[in-house]
Amino acid sequence: MSELCDHNKPELQATVGEGSNPAKHWFVYLIRTQQGVLYTGISTDPARRLRQHQGEIVGGAKALRGKGPLQLVWQYQAPNRSIASQWEFQLKKLPKKAKEQLVSLLWQPEFLQGIQQKSYSDK
């Protein structure tokens, strides 16, 4: 299972990503709405993205408008944007029960196993 880290204390190693900035990290993340729905997305900065989704700054997803308060409950670093997008697609296909197990760190999908990146979980 992955190591836990506080998203406010960046302890992640730089990874080579796609594009011109080799230090740019990509993450797949889950956000929980007030109704308990889990929203899946990708970002280089999940904390900033949460602020966007909450309407604090411009750029949030329409699907999350009016669904707050929102909570970032899980994130996982991907080697690059392409893989983060692939993981996002795969996570979106999972049933809610599987996503809840992922958030609880009771389960990890095969496509994430063996990846030695750090994750964050906050219930």
Automatic annotation (TrEMBL):
CDD domains: GIY-YIG_UPF0213. It comes from the Bacteria. InterPro entries: GIY-YIG_endonuc, GIY-YIG_endonuc_sf, UPF0213_domain. SUPFAM superfamilies: GIY-YIG endonuclease. Residues 24-101 form the GIY-YIG domain. Belongs to the UPF0213 family. This is GIY-YIG nuclease family protein. The lineage of its organism: Bacteria, Pseudomonadati, Pseudomonadota, Gammaproteobacteria, Chromatiales.
